[in-house]
Amino acid sequence: MSRPIPITADAAGSFLIEVLARVPAGFPSPAQDHTQKRIDLNDVLVLNPIATFLFQVEGDSMIDARIFDGDRLIVDRSIEPVHGRVVLACVDDEFTVKRLYKRSGVVRLHAANPLYPPITFVEGQEMSVWGVVTWNLRQLLHPQKRR
Predict the structure, then answer these.
(1) pTM of the predicted model, to two decimals?
(2) Are residues 62 and 110 in the same domain?
(3) 18-27, 91-100, 120-129: which range is least confident on average?
(4) Any bridge partners for residue 120, and if so which?
(5) How far apart are the C-alpha atoms of 127 and 108, rounded to whole Å?
(6) Is residue 27 pLDDT above 70, yes or no?
(7) Which positions are annotated as active-site residues?
(8) Do 86 and 64 have their domain in common?
(9) 81 shares a domain with 23
């Protein structure tokens, strides 16, 4: 890329990023068009604005799903929580991020780390799926390491 992409906020506070071009993961293409357009990150990351929330991950129970401590998850409450989706669940008034298992009347929450057993529910225990994780935002360069 020939120059950095500016990130600015518009009057409504939405963040706008100027998109120069697609970036190949292999060899760069010198013939690639450098068209310029601006995108709003809300348009890319948010499917339903009134049902979308941001949470920060604590812990290592989902590392095999590439969800790490400190990551920020975008969670949408309007998406149906079906078998296999990563969800934000509330178990006995505590939030947790797990993969939903929902088959033949059995509901469990599975970690993506072999050190953690699945959460199975017993009578009297409360569990609700709060929302479905749609994006994982991971900061690759930590503020103290910017030099």
Answers:
(1) 0.72
(2) yes
(3) 18-27
(4) 108
(5) 10
(6) no
(7) 61, 98
(8) yes
(9) no
Q: Is 4 helix (H, G, I), strand (E, B) or coil?
A: coil
Convert 47-57 to b/e letters by CB count within 10 Å (16 or more is b).
eeeeebeebeb
Region of 139 on the Ramachandran plot (φ > 0 left; ψ -120 to 50 alpha; else beta)? beta
Instruction: Show Cβ contacts of residue 116 under 8 Å, excluding neighbours closer than 6 positions.
Output: 61
Q: How does pLDDT run across 111-147, given as a tens digit for each residue?
A: 999 999 999 887 888 889 999 999 999 988 777 765 5
Same domain, yes or no: 82 and 129: yes
Q: How many H helices and E strands in the chain?
A: 1, 10
Rounded-to-integer distance, Cα 66 and Cα 5, Å:
26
Residue the block writes with tokens 């009297």: 124
Instruction: Decide: residue 106, CB within 10 A, 0-12 exposed, 13-18 middle, 19+ buried.
Output: exposed
pLDDT for the residue numbered 3: 37
